[in-house]
């Protein structure tokens, strides 16, 4: 596909000049995901065709979710339409389509909720804008709930913390139940169940790939740095997004982790059964799917007999791991005496380490203990900035202190690169802008919205590139890395501008065993 | 006759407000929050969370970060409304506590501030294209209702005074189930009627944000998922059935 097919927004000189666009109804209504075919619906327990009683099924599912989840009910009822969130979504900023304003996106469901579930909406639909759940509504949901990357930026700014991600997850759950699944996410979920990872890389191929990487490491460093697979009795199980096995720049990150483990002399392994940290169950808001995918990690940990579980660089995966694994699969600490399910794994885990642990936490601790030494001059050809991934920044933590998820990666980068500068304050930390490809949107048919959604990040990046001599941007998320690699060229930035954090760490790490 | 109608209206409205809001709160409290979803960085202790929620309720912290105009107008409106409500306590308490006496003049300024802030919010709702787009008729009506309540109250004070001693006797009588006559001044009756309307609408409208702000999982959850296993009853059941 040529660049010309997409309309590329013009990039303002600095983030302060990223003006909020005027409302342009319908601006992105034609950008639609592909619907899932029966073969990607049925294995997940969703209808393969749109059934005649789709409306009943949708409403039934909605009612179920309302009783299952407090956030959905409270958020549907609490919005005062103050408008504070209207200019906070990167998709609105990039497209001007009003249905990409967080509150308007929520209203796509709220109007239905009022009509079908509240006395006000049943009796006075025109007053409170109650809306019947029709086919058109379903189509609109399918379009606009797949133009939300579930990045939660809106929830930071809402006076009641209303999280549009919660609404869009519920919406996709309802869409799936009524037969309106999205191909990209559901196809990947089928792969992970069948093969063990999102990319459909079978065990033997994975083994080959890792051997190749070990050779690369040998050529690169002269040392025998191993990337063990299925090593029974290893101390640490590393679970990482499967893109780390071959995509660029992900794979450089994986080699960085290997160097860290090697240098610290830790015993670790990957698992061919659980060769995927990603959990796309979250994107469709489906608890059962999320649990099923998470339980693969649990099983691998039990089978391999590991004492610690470490997660590689991936944003949504870290959210699921940090925030949900304990709930979903008992991967964590603090289970009840009577909670046999969780105890079964916990009894085996080392209580001295957090479970799960982020690879950045592990590397940071080793750096603090002086086990790892860095030579940042190795990265002197690089001027670096850091992209906070939304799921890491706003939906998880690293370390003991709130905000560690911002500080720990930066501490590692500062140790690894001398020329490090942050992008504008309004675009980092918990105010970070999504890369534009998260939440199940990393698919080619959505490229238009992905390019436009990247505009706020690209603006801030260009600004430091011009002012501070920045040449590269590190990320700790497989989706961010893939998205930027694809989208930056449309903004005339090189695709290799984006690098893995542990690639920088790996470059700077001193592997000489002698006195340092 | 007027007295009887208003007495019944107020009993009914109070019942609807209390029962309606109570049921909503009970529903929110009963509905489980199955996953740990605080918007991070989030406090790691209960006390920290209490502080976080308190700053949201008292200072509108997130809104301040978000949009200074909405914050200013919204905060002034709510603070003024609080003062005005406290000022009205003098109609319900006998003897009137000293502090209620003290705030009387401030409550009066507050009434003007309240109406002005509401007008500002309405102006935004109409003038900013994004907010206009998301507004439903009910959003405009709600502002109209609140402004009308404030304006009619001010009108009673400055343009069409009523016998406030009698008004107080009416409300004390209501509370003691010993009805006293309500002055039949039109402005007073309009004011009271609008208040009744607001009380009735409350539990069925976006005014539920008053309860929602305390129940928002992104704000009221402790950030400790690695240390504590959270399991909703329905999720525990799912786990049992799966094994
Ligand atoms: S900021 Fe919150 S309350 Fe205000 S319009 Fe957006 S979602 Fe609604
Ligand atoms: S979660 Fe992110 S993508 Fe979705 S509406 Fe909010 S800001 Fe936009």
Oligomer designation = heterodimer
Main β-sheet, spatial strand arrangement of chain A = 2-1-3-4
Largest sheet of chain B: none
| End-to-end distance of chain A | 51 Å
Put simply, the count of helices of chain B is 13
CATH-defined architecture of chain B: Up-down Bundle
Helix content of chain B: over 70%
Question: Which percent range fits the helix content of chain A?
Answer: 40-55%
Which stretches of chain A are low in confidence, meaning pLDDT under 50 for 5 or more residues running?
none
Which residues of chain B form runs of ≥5 with pLDDT under 50? Answer: none
Q: Provide the CATH superfamily of chain B.
A: Transmembrane di-heme cytochromes, Chain C
* Broad shape of chain B: globular
Order of helices and strands of chain B: HHHHHHHHHHHHH
What structural class do the secondary elements of chain B suggest? Answer: mainly alpha
Secondary structure: number of strands of chain B: 0
What is the 3D form of chain A? globular
Mean pLDDT across every amino acid position of chain B: 96
